[in-house]
Amino acid sequence: METSRPIRSLLYFLFGVCPLLFFTDLTRNPYYTQIALLNILIPACWLVWLSEAWKSQELLWVSSVFDPALGALLGISLLSWGLSFVSHPHLAKSIYSEGSKAAIFLLVNTFLVYAAAVRVRDLSLIRSLIWISYAVCFISALYGVTQYFGVEVIWPSHLNPYGSRPVSTFGNPNFMSSYLVVVMPVMVGDYLTKATGCPRSILFIAIQMSLAALLATLTRSSWAGFAVGMIVLWVGMRSSGKGENDVSGLDAFGRSFLA
Description:
mainly alpha; 70% helix; globular
């Protein structure tokens, strides 16, 4: 099923612009702009998606084996939030302030993203989003490496709130390394299987640049996370035995990446 142009445009902006758009003097933390865009674009995609499905009478519920676990997480989280009001009424404003942020994150960035990942059927869209993420990974990694060596190519002064650790377009080396840890195993898997058809020469350059940026962040937990991701990739590839240019391989990579 082909995705409509409005949803494609929103997703391209979400995957391609949101991670790279940052300002050093607009807010206290430059990634607030990214958070706001993320929380706006994801519900916007769903509103357009639901509107189109309603008009075409194609509203269908798609379930997966993870639904009970995710439902339990949502239920327990919302229940604990409500019980906090009862147990600590004198902290009601603080509980509402922090709890509402967590609730928005849980509903928008967890449930809606997961629900979209299990419903997508457009393999061309998956391929495009993966390629966009490769490009974002390379650009942010290259910018991070230049910052590590003391070269600032965008702003008039150096961004060094964490010493020599680069922040790139994420405002925090830990956030940058987390993004790299998510995308890099997908790039390595694509390099080995050619699941999306991206040239291996491009993937090799992007992987090396991302690895250099990951090392420059000095985030040891992310190094461990990348190692775990590679182990999972290796186990998955051995158990599946997928060959090059396999459509089901692209589908598996795409769903894992989106989720």
